User: Fold these one by one.
Assistant:
Number 1:
Amino acid sequence: MKPSVYAYIAVMAAVTYLIRLLPLTLIRREIKNKFIRSFLYYVPFVTLSVMVFPAILTATSSKCASAAGFAAALILAYCRRSLITVALCASAVVFLIELLPVV
Amino acid sequence: MKRHAYFAAGVGAGIPIFLGYLAVSFTFGIMAKNCGLSVFQAVLLSASNLTSAGQFSGLTLITAGAPLAEMAATQFVINLRYCLMSCSLSQKIDEKTPFFHRFFMAYGVTDEIFGVSVSREGRLSPFYFYGLVTISAFGWIGGTFLGVVSGSLLPARIVSALSIALYGMFIAIIIPPARSSKVVAGIIMISMLLSLLFTAAPLLKEISSGFRIIILTVVISGAAAFFFPIADSGVEQEELS
């Protein structure tokens, strides 16, 4: 017999929550070790970079539009624009390019 | 700053997440409906999990009628990256913050909320975090609901355009610190190149996206920490903001 949808949802939620909870509750003190501190400092940059590229190229319905949105985001981020500006401008670029008949 | 001021700041900072989540969860809602889930089940799934890749793969397993153990294992592998993020966040919370907050904060550790939280200067207020989580979860759950109820409410063009919003936000988080630190700039480039390699090269591309993120994060951050350890002065913390 198949498990019920609610059983699946409960298992998914429990596993996901525990993964998030354990490090937060087990690491209560500030870590003094220089290597671990450095490691944790670099984690966001690596994680977010790996998530962005190359996945961003297939995020929308056309590769050209995605590439243009990617370029727009890089330029605006380099000019220190806010998160919302960069996010919306990348979306706007994708929207406009997908309106073109050739793409 | 008062609690409600932190909360409001978090809500404001979460607007790009809200828009991105709306688009992604809208797609999720449509898929959930196609897999035979009711509105209530789909919304419950989104509200209790608050994760994208895990939920999409979960739908596949639900449809296939997979054993619960397989579901648990799959979620563990796909979402293990949150473990690294929670480790990083644990250092951002003030030691004086009451302990119970960590139980509530854990609910909201997603790629995007993590990204915005670490980009904020100084210590992380739980109330700022709750503001972020509230607006983000509103987008995630609301988008799911709309997707199930009316798969045609949001035009496909809008969904496609908004699908890049979260990536744009990530770029806005990582690029500015790279201007003032050559090490960070180099790490970003190496990470993207290796990620491309892991997506395209034979054998390596068989590795799931969840594991790709974990492997590259551990290897690249580890190498960076070994060769370019940060000073204790807190200069680097400023770079991140």
Number 2:
Amino acid sequence: MLQSQSLSHPSERTDKPDSQVGSDSLFAGYRRHQGAWDELFAADGEPHPHCRLLVERLGQLRSNEFQNRRASADLVFINQSITFSVYSDRRGVEKIFPFDLVPRPVAASEWDRTEAGLKQRILALNHFLYDVYHDRRIIKEGIIPGELVLGSKCYRPEMIGFEPPGRQYVHVCGTDLIRDTKGEFLVLEDNGRTPSGVSYVLENRVVMKKVFPQLFQHFRVRRVEDYPQRLRDALFSVAPAGAGDPPTVVLLTPGPYNSAYFEHSFLARHMGIELVVGRDLFVEDDVVYLQTTHGAEKVDVIYRRLDDDFLDPEAFRPDSLLGVPGLFRAYRAGNVTLANAVGTGVADDKAIYPFVEDMIRFYLSEEPILRNVPTYICDRPSDRAFVLDHLHELVVKAVNESGGYGMLMGHTSTEAQRAEFREKIRANPRNYIAQPIVTLSTCPTWTDEGSAPRHVDLRPYIVSGRSTWVLPGGLTRTALVKGSLVVNSSQGGGSKDTWVMENTR
Amino acid sequence: MISRVAEHCFWMARYLERAEDTARILDVNQTLLLDYHVPMEQQWRPVLIISGIYDMPGEPQAETVQDYMTWEASNLCSIASSLAAARENARIIREVISAEMWERLNYYHLWMQGSAARQLYENSRCDFYSEIRRINQLIHGIADGTMSHDEPWSFFQLGTYLERACQTARILDVKYHMGMRGGDKVQDADATPVDNAHWVAILTSCSGYEPFHKKVRQLQDTGMAVAEFLVLDNEFPRSVRCCLRRCERAAHAVSGRPVDQPGDGVEKMLAELIGWLNGRSIAEVFRDGLHEALTHVVDSTHELGAAIHRTYFDVRGRTGSSKRGV
């Protein structure tokens, strides 16, 4: 498997010509996970066609060389404090999101299809949101049970009859994809409220370019760096009538002790907009103002990373100290745009998720390009009976939890845990869904024992203003613990750079 | 710019400057004691007094005071506390400062928390204090070269020079707190070696030794010459008058008004204080008491801090958060 010399960069060539097949090379001794799709290697142990060159080039690195580059990558994260803080620590222990240097490649052709599927899905979700706050056709026509929609904790009656600029609700969506054992991407869930993680995609790429500059010269990897500009353009495009030119756009954060504060700061910096907390803003005559050293300045668009509940103590939770009193009034008066819109949570409710494929058929008259993971709705008596009988082989999820909390992984659970969930499901079936356990695909990941398979998922980011754009690739999250299927950062997961690779000869 | 962000900028600068000044004070005190015999009680207590600390637990001995002023987390004036507060303010406004500033500040934050800083402190106190001084110098250099010189920059300047004006006045007042002659007229002939050593130490702690000797060729009265240099000099960047002028320039950069037309409370107060300094010679200052004059400067910088808060940060009269300043 020798590659042509022209591709070999001096600094990545090792001294001994035979070292690329030596026992200390990166992929020497890599053992594929038996029951999972592998992102780099096919079942016969050979690399997938689009990964061949990458495997060859990375394989030339000796383990210790790789280890050195890994150490320098870690240092970048530490010195710049690219971190998240963990909720349970009040003052926030800042933690580095562990980063793995082996990229996760996606062939361009496959990505193009995935991207089309994501655009289709987000379009349907937007139609759905407009519909449930206006005519409710999808309920009237019996496609989705009304009680599931109207009974959702995230359904906001305050939004009924309100038309957000451009009828756009979900300006930023993070849709979690997983690959099943046959290698097909499935949608695990949509995150249409305040999805996070995109800053890691951008930082990971920066670090990869620092650590492996030569690799990028040889592969045509689609750029991710445009994200902040794309997002800013999208936010500009949905400014309300009467906005400034350019509109004043701010990013509203819950504050410096929020786990994603780094990301909020990162995005504000890269978009060139102000990062604000609730008390920087105030509302007068239904207009939102920013408190500056030179007095008040009108605000047109708020990219808010604050949940609906906390946005405005007058409209929602009265005990919220993070929000802006009167903000919702200003929003309904059409004087300010909120991105994402209020009330989008009903679309990414896990109880609504099983109906998204039907939504696509209903609103777009198209077949879904991306499929869902088969899902049992515990609110349905027949599904519930099945779930209660098969807990040991299912994953059960509370519909209003995220970040890997409130979950039961049936196959690794104890009898006591299953009993507890049985009780919970019976008490409040609306609150639970269940899915067969999908063995997520694996990707070679650097571990203490050299490269080894670890499970991964993929969160692409979809940005919508007057039009929709999808970030090529997205955040690949990886479980770092052998065999673990939980990839959430709050549960000890790490991340990888995702490479959408143009076809090379 | 957003008031809250301006406030973080201002305090980041103050804390950085405070860390540097504290290191200067500790360093010079340490150096001085190698050369001169000073009674125990006079050795380290003044270091505490000029930082406004009257309640350090235990006896003010060399190691306890240095430890307390360098590492003690419960002491808001310690170097460790100042740097942590500077870094926390920077973290909150990371989108405002340059990436290079942040990276360096964060690097030193981690350095202070790791074992390397401790080791340097134990092995070579002097190198440790130089390193601390270098932090602020480095950040200022990076800021100058990488941050737009617009409004956040002006608040960064304002914080730096207000803190420095106050610290220089305090350093100069240390002789008074040592119970030594400092306010009355001291002729060189009368001055003891310890007395002169202290003036030299004070100059050195302000990096003023060489600039002073370049400027003051004929030395009649060491004390008065040093005080004149550190209070009234127009070019030395750590003199009180020079620092206040820089504050004035920063405040007017924010408002956009010419320097000779003070408009808001901060500008008026600065003009008044600078006018007060302009209106007297060093001989008159000594006649009325150096300590009294320095106390006036220190009190005025406190009032200026309050005026800055009212004018820029708390425009609508809301009560601010507790975290950002002491």
